[in-house]
Write a structure and sequence with these properties.
single chain, mainly beta, Methylamine Dehydrogenase, Chain H, 4-stranded antiparallel sheet, 20 strands, about 0% helix, about 45% strand
Amino acid sequence: MKLLSLNLFFFLLETQICFGQWYQQNSGTTATLTEIHFENSLEGWAVGDSGIILNTIDFGSNWSTQTSGTANPLYCVYFTDVNMGWAVGDYGTILNTSNGGTTWTSQTSGTSTFLASVYFTDENTGWAVGGNGTVLETSNGGTNWYSQTCGTSNHLESVYFTDVNTGWVVGYSGTILKTSDGGTFWNSQTIGTYYRLTSVYFADDNTGWAVGEL
């Protein structure tokens, strides 16, 4: 099971740039929420404990519960458009929707370890990462997931691609891995820290950030 050391809130917050303030929104749940993804200014999803998936179509003014079909904790949700999305979580859980979450279906991951992060460059090509150095890749929207060899057994926390070839993964013990061929080969990058890294983001192929814990 994935161990979380972050301070997670039981409610959702939103900010308006023009005022620089945060306002509490009513999520309608007391479950811990671990990840949020907005596809545009109005439509977004949040996932968390007990397989909960929430959706809003009005900037978060109202949140509704979607039926995930699982009680496993979910750690990440990602959409390529307002219809096509994936959520991943404990025990190798991968869920997919093609209608904005009206229905979610389970996909076979081939692993029983936790999956912490999922990222797609288009509706077909994506990656999921998680425990014990797990890196999974699909080229058909998740109908089939295949394991990639990444060269580490450290838990992996986050994955991000700038295109179908170039991507990064971060995780425990200061792990940063990079690929230039869609994950056929992953190369370790030296950063000089052994702290756990929990998230990675790149603005382009050269400029990126990784964050974690002390």
